[in-house]
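Continuing the batch. This is chain 6 of the set; chains 1 through 5 are on the previous pages. Same settings as before, nothing changed between runs. Recording input and output for traceability.
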Amino acid sequence: MTFEEWMEAVVHGFEIVGVAILLAGSITALTRYVLALAREQQEGAFARVRNGVGRAILLGLEILIIADIVLTITVDTTLESALTLVLVVLVRTFLSFSIEIELEGRSRGGVQTDRLISMSCIRDHYGSRITEVARQLKVSTSSAWRAVRA
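Output for chain 6:
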């Protein structure tokens, strides 16, 4: 097995772990929600499921970012892949930060906020930049958005 093949296997391992965390965390949170509803403990159940799913997304995104970084620095070491990595990491980091703000009600610095940030906010704020990077990379805008949502 060559170094590149071994590193691709490592990347796939990180991707599998990231997706497993997303699935397991979401299923666990939803199961707890259903059980709370069945026990008629509805007060706070939605907030708990939302926090559980949000935390699973945060951890899953972190692991998937690791996979992207390992892939780019070890296997696909082209300028195009590096620029794509920058775009994906920026958007995923922004999503992680946004989810954290939404879950905690404040940023890591402690700034209080009640603004909900969603994919439409990202589209409104970063849409032209993502389109511009996609044009520079000579990929379709829809491919760039799929990478952002991945």
